[in-house]
Amino acid sequence: MTNTSNGTPAIEFRDVVKRFGDNVVLDKLNFSVAQGDRVTLIGPSGSGKTTILRLLMTLEEANGGLILIDGDPYTHEYKGDKWVEIPEKRRRVVRNRVGMVFQQFNLFPNMTVLENIIEAPVHVLGLSKKDATDRAEQLLEQVGMPDKRDARCTQLSGGQQQRVAIARALAMDPEILLLDEVTSALDPEIVADVLGVLRDIARTTDITMLLVTHEMQFAREVSNRVLMFDHGQIVEEADPETMFTNPKHERTQEFLKAVLGG
Amino acid sequence: MSDDLQALIDSLPDLGGAVLVTLQMTLGGAVLAMLVALVLGFGSRTRSLWVRGPSRVVIEFFRGTSLVVQIFWLFYVLPVFGFKMEALAVAIVALGLNYGAYAAEVVRGSVESVPTGQWEAATALNLGPFHKIRRVIFPQAWALMIPQLANLLIQLLKGSALAFYITLHDLYWWIDELQRDTRDTFFSYGCGLVLYFVIAYVLTWGMNWLEERAKRRLGRGTRPRLRDVFGLKPGVPTEVVRVKGGVA
């Protein structure tokens, strides 16, 4: 797998197991993502793609294995032979490096656009309100919404809410950005705007990105690696060009045929 | 009838004090009930069994026992163990614990009605557990819980009449005195109905105002019109509106 110059991947999964009841979603999954990589996870529903992002955001608990961020154990570690949970206090330090944008935006309706963006930088990163506001205004400019600073989130369209959600995630200055089907809840004509914003971020930053998306053209443009999942395992891994034009695995061929309609 | 009116006029000087005692019990009980509700409501949904277990036991105990018995127990039995409280304090504590136990369920239910996405977004932003509740979850749950809390507040007001039995000179005591003076049950209890209704109506206005304000802060509804605030709306729980984006 691709590694950085110092050899430490931004994200590493070692034998990660995740079960929901009797349903094994991830079965001893191993993979790593180098710093600055843009990796798209594709595969049929239930193949474990979103679960990977949710584990990385600690929204789900693994049932086994290790997840490492920049080489640091994140949710569990081994003490001797014992697999133990890492206390919330230590998790929070690592979690600061990870940001996530959700399919359903999940903006806080009790706050304005600006308040949504500065809440965590002020209270978690300890930025002054002025610095956080300046940064928020820059980000709103970047996502094309400089005039919506004081708007209530409920007054915004889906596309606008998602752009605010992207700005909110970026305001925490994450090293890793997780994008979970961020255009799936949007009307088709708005999808291009949001993808444009993400394309811009991919071009102008070196944030490590992990995307789950059904927008194959976008995945092709933005990512440098594509991982095809099925039943909680990586069945194929390639650069986007190879993956989308010349997939090797039969399961990938079937999936892409169904998705691309070709 | 003129004798009744004369008796009413004669007893008016006591009415202010009696209403004040009823209001002290109602508002004191409500504040205590809210504190109890927050502690037990959040306590009963924590992961730790050591917090959740006792919270559930206290809720079930105070919901499952009679308010009259609780008042009598605090007033007559507790002093046996060397702990004596003033009658007003007994009434406030009993009302606070009893209605707090009911309100705890309202708090728990409302907190659980806040869309999961809101919790997840707060986690993704790395907000601390207390901060998450205070700044994100509670303001949204608050709008959902007010209608049910309004119902409980009115019930608490009416429940305060039981304090008459532990020597308090509250509104019910005043009505009882009026009945003794006039020997006219229709007139005296009629006055009682009107007075309790007026207080309950004022409380309902206050709660309607709070509800409209809370909804407005969530970007739902508009600035309350007088009709919204003064109207006697039934205490129907606010429906959780789930729209695209998980915004309630």
TrEMBL record, chain A:
The family database entries (SMART domains) matched by this protein are listed as: AAA (SM00382)
Where it sits in the cell: the answer is: Cell membrane
- Pfam families from the entry? ABC_tran
- So where does this one cross the membrane? none
Which sequence ranges form a coiled-coil region, renumbered to this chain?
Answer: none
The UniProt entry lists membrane topology as:
Peripheral membrane protein
Q: Which domain of life is it from?
A: Bacteria
Q: Which Gene3D superfamilies did the record assign?
A: P-loop containing nucleotide triphosphate hydrolases
Molecular function (GO) terms for this protein are: ATP binding
Alphabetical keyword list: Amino-acid transport, ATP-binding, Cell membrane, Membrane, Nucleotide-binding, Transport
Membership in a protein family: Belongs to the ABC transporter superfamily.
UniProt protein name: Ectoine/hydroxyectoine ABC transporter ATP-binding protein EhuA
Q: Which organism is it from?
A: Isoptericola peretonis
List the top taxonomic levels of the source. Answer: Bacteria, Bacillati, Actinomycetota, Actinomycetes, Micrococcales
Quote the gene name from the UniProt entry: ehuA
From TrEMBL, chain B:
- Entry's localization field: Cell membrane
> How does the entry describe its membrane topology?
Multi-pass membrane protein
Matching entries from Gene3D superfamilies are given as: MetI-like (1.10.3720.10)
Q: Which Pfam families match?
A: BPD_transp_1
Major subcellular location class? membrane
Q: Which residues cross the membrane?
A: 15-40, 141-166, 186-210
List UniProt keywords, sorted A-Z: Amino-acid transport, Cell membrane, Membrane, Transmembrane, Transmembrane helix, Transport
Note the InterPro entries from the entry. Answer: AA_ABC_transptr_permease_3TM, ArtM/GltK/GlnP/TcyL/YhdX-like, Ectoine_EhuC, MetI-like, MetI-like_sf
The entry assigns this protein to a family as follows: Belongs to the binding-protein-dependent transport system permease family.
The name under which this protein is listed is Ectoine/hydroxyectoine ABC transporter permease subunit EhuC
